[in-house]
Write a structure and sequence with these properties.
eight-stranded antiparallel beta barrel, 247 residues, alpha+beta
């Protein structure tokens, strides 16, 4: 999320396949270390999208000097347009707090990016997630596009639906049409939510792979088992920006 200086805060306050990536699932959804990932979503005003992104591109080094940027995308379709979505990695909550404290005192960051761009933001959201223990962040084979699939699962956590969900994810990844980048479980935000981030070469290849998936008996069987624990699902197609580490 954007970080405001203390004086500004007072001013504004009133107003190859999945098996190469995954191993066995445990009942605890968190990684053994304290590492977590913050999902940030900014809903921008339509007339200011290009200016906002141009300004961030010019000043991204001021932000990445303090914590790791995993990826930065625009929503192409499947969600609210004029939206940017980005993922930041932190070693711990203390690490995140230290980063935000530093940014609040960073006059260059405040003056060159934050203050000029605040009027361009209509709304922002933050969600804290952990990688599930059976998954690591994958690397795309080349530049392409991304699909973020968000599942709202029935209450009970991975102890209830984890095995079935892992089988469904692996069945999709084993098709070879898409590359699994990461599986994230929400810790703060809307709970019982799981995000699966995929890489694909382009939208047409993704569409062809989805059609083939519907005709794969093993995949259909795995998905049918998993949907018994599913409430809702949303798919968003994402376009990475030139400064995004994941392209």
């Amino acid at each position: 999320m954007l970080v405001l200086g203390s004086s500004l805060m007072r001013t504004l306050a009133p107003r190859a396949l999945a098996r190469q990536v995954c191993s066995s699932l445990t009942t605890d959804h968190r990684q053994p270390e304290g590492t977590f990932y913050e999902f940030c979503t900014y809903y921008l005003k339509p007339s200011n999208v290009e200016e906002f992104l141009y300004n961030f591109k010019k000043n991204v080094h001021l932000r990445t000097a303090h914590s790791e940027l995993v990826g930065y995308w625009s929503v192409a379709f499947g969600g609210r347009i004029n939206t940017v979505f980005h993922i930041w990695k932190y070693d711990s909550y203390a690490h995140r707090a230290a980063v935000y404290k530093t940014l609040a005192k960073d006059k260059e960051w405040q003056q060159r990016f934050l203050i000029p761009n605040l009027p361009f933001i209509d709304k922002q959201e933050s969600e804290i997630t952990y990688l599930v223990p059976w998954c690591k962040i994958g690397k795309p084979p080349k530049e392409g596009f991304y699909e973020l699939v968000t599942f709202l699962m029935k209450p009970g956590g991975p102890a209830l639906w984890g095995d079935a969900f892992e089988r469904a994810v692996n069945a999709h990844a084993n098709q070879g049409h898409i590359k699994l980048i990461g599986v994230f479980h929400a810790e703060y935000g809307l709970l019982n939510r799981v995000h699966v981030l995929w890489w694909t070469e382009n939208a047409d290849i993704r569409a062809a792979g989805r059609q083939q998936a519907h005709e794969d008996p093993k995949l259909v069987s795995a998905v049918r088992e998993s949907v018994n624990y599913l409430d809702t699902q949303q798919n968003m197609f994402l376009i990475p920006w030139s400064f995004s580490p994941l392209k």
